[in-house]
Specification:
single chain, 412 residues, six-stranded mixed beta barrel, 14 helices, 10 strands, 16% strand
């Protein structure tokens, strides 16, 4: 019966592999590397998808950002730099005239600031000036304290909300609420801190602090270009809100019909397009290395199987003389090559598990990656290893099964 022949082939293959353990291990290295690339590629792509979802959640699936610059970098930097700033009057006009949007809130940034607390300081911080309503759009979750209240938008309140990395750098002992920091020589009282929210695509957001817009203008000047976050109130309303926003901005900035926009409307699809390019690169490198590794693995296992057939020629002759069928000999060597590949796949699983655990535990920036091997990648790697084992063992197995028993018994 087929089952008995496969079981017999398994026992013979097990003995053959055990008797040449080191050779068997070296033979499977190609499969180990191939399986490792398959799993790590799938794991990395799953991580990128997770990072994208976190990013889209952070910036909002139904939010448009009217800005002087195109976040995707699609237009030439020099052209965007020469655009007119979006000033306060234009911001006020747009917010007042919008009818389809749920809400719209302005903001403005100053990059590369130093925030001080006594003798401690943290560099490379972005200071964001905005209004209390911004918490409903893209601030993230409050860890301690609160965000601005409307009265702080109007009056000169020196309040600040600190991002996750800034809190860790200046208040490692915790309890930052009510304490003070200095921004550009001015003392601010900490009213709130934010939970970690940075992602692979927006890793700088944890290095931000938020202050009231009026205070920002007094510190950095009122002539900076502003960004307007326009919340549509649902993804299904994005097209309508985008159309109205674009039309109003063209009117407000006096752009003649037929002339291109001198502003950009940014949204989450920018990050989808960016991730698509990253995914393509990861997929291409991973698949290319996987194919190369498996080709090397097939060649290596095939050569070793030919050596194994030559070494066991007399054994094959004896088995045939005792009545073994060609099919039994064929299965014996196919099972052996498949077992070699499965052993390589198992070693690859162990290696990947160790690598993934070290990366996810040792690097905080890799929080978007899962600490576990994706189950679908285990299945794909296992099936691939089986196919490689069959392909690698087919020719040696056919050669063994077609041996003449008389000629095989003459082999010294």
């Amino acid at each position: 019966m087929l089952w008995h022949e496969l079981l017999e082939g398994f026992h013979i293959a097990q003995q053959a592999i055990a008797s040449n353990a080191m050779r068997s291990f070296l033979t499977t290295l190609g499969v180990v590397i191939g399986v490792t690339f398959v799993i790590l590629t799938g794991w990395a792509l799953n991580g990128l998808d997770s990072a994208l979802e976190q990013t889209i959640t952070l910036i909002g699936t139904d939010v448009l950002y009217v800005d002087k610059f195109d976040w995707s970098g699609g237009n030439r930097w020099a052209d965007m730099r020469n655009r007119k700033n979006i000033n306060t009057a234009q911001v006020d006009q747009l917010i007042e005239r919008l009818t389809t949007a749920q809400t719209a809130v302005p903001s403005v940034q100053q990059w590369n600031n130093t925030i001080k607390r006594g003798n401690q300081y943290v560099e490379g911080v972005a200071v964001v000036g905005t209004l209390s309503g911004y918490t409903d759009i893209a601030v993230g979750n409050i860890a301690e304290g609160r965000f601005f209240v409307p009265v702080e938008d109007t009056y000169r309140s020196y309040s600040v909300v600190l991002g996750y990395n800034v809190v860790n750098a200046l208040f490692s002992e915790g309890n930052a609420i009510g304490k003070t920091v200095k921004i550009r020589g001015t003392t601010f009282t900490v009213v709130g801190t934010l939970e970690k929210q940075g992602t692979l695509l927006l890793d700088f957001v944890d290095n931000q602090v938020y202050i009231p817009l009026n205070i920002f203008r007094s510190l950095y000047g009122a002539d900076r270009s502003m960004t307007i976050a326009v919340k549509a109130g649902g993804e299904e309303r994005l097209d309508e809100v985008r159309l109205e926003t674009r039309g109003l901005m063209r009117q407000i900035r006096n752009i003649a019909p037929g002339r291109p926009d001198d502003f950009s409307i940014n949204e989450s699809k920018v990050f989808r397009e960016s991730l698509a390019n990253i995914r393509l690169s990861v997929w291409g490198v991973g698949i290319g290395m996987t194919i190369l590794s498996f080709v090397v693995g097939i060649i290596g296992i095939m050569n070793i199987m030919f050596v194994s057939v030559t070494e066991r020629t007399r054994e094959i002759g004896i088995r045939k003389a005792l009545g073994a069928r060609r099919r039994s000999i064929l299965y014996q060597f196919l099972v052996e090559s498949t077992m070699l590949c499965c052993a390589g796949a198992l070693a690859g699983f162990v290696l990947c598990s160790a690598l993934i655990l070290v990366i996810t535990i040792g690097f905080e920036s890799a929080s978007f990656l899962s600490p576990f091997i994706p189950p679908n990648m285990l299945g794909i790697a296992s099936v691939t290893a089986l196919i490689v084992g069959i392909l690698a063992g087919m020719l040696p197995a056919l050669r063994a099964s077609r041996m003449n028993p008389v000629d095989a018994l003459r082999k010294e």
